[in-house]
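User: Please run a holo structure prediction.
Assistant: Happy to. Please share the sequence and the ligand.
User: Here you go; the ligand is AR6.
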Amino acid sequence: MKFQVGNATLELIKADITDVEADAIVNAANSSLMGGGGVDGSIHRKGGPKILEECKRIRETEWPDGLPTGKAVITSGGNLKAKHVIHTVGPVWMGGFHVEAELLKQAYRNSLKLASAKGVKTVAFPSISTGAYAYPIEEASRIAVGTVKEFLEKEDKLDKVTLVLFSDRDLKVYSETASILFG
Ligand code: AR6
């Protein structure tokens, strides 16, 4: 499914994000930046040790106490097809009463801003927070699609943003949300 936003394209696909050819792929990391399960585990496994070394350097220099929720940092893509990995931390779902929506929005927005600032033209996101962090996918899809749409309407540096879903069901949820938001 594809949508045009100004000069840019928003695309929804089902894939393993570690196989996606984009200037940058986004990692749904945790504050430690030291890897984990889910998409984070796959990115580090397939990308090799260079990514973790760069994450360690970022911890030593920029974020000694860990990357706060909603912020984003960038490393190389190591052995991945993607040139860069943008690491962001989504919120853990706590029932919706702990500014989760605002933090998830910030994770998308700060990743897009960083991509733009680094001259990245194509960027791919997984469904941040909807795995181990248990964010309900319908609500998360509205934030993901809505935040990307809003960003692309204001900013003309990115050519393509791909939202990469890992199951048919997740792709269906995101596609229904996009159909509504693009009316
Ligand atoms: N490609 C695309 N999507 C994937 C892939 C993949 N290879 N693998 C999983 N997903 P999660 P979170 C989907 O748990 O909820 C980690 O341990 C998955 O089906 O990866 O933000 C980190 O270290 C789901 O839809 O991220 C953190 O501790 C989505 O990616 C914590 O999990 C996100 O699931 C972050 O939790």
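The longest strand covers residues 8-14.
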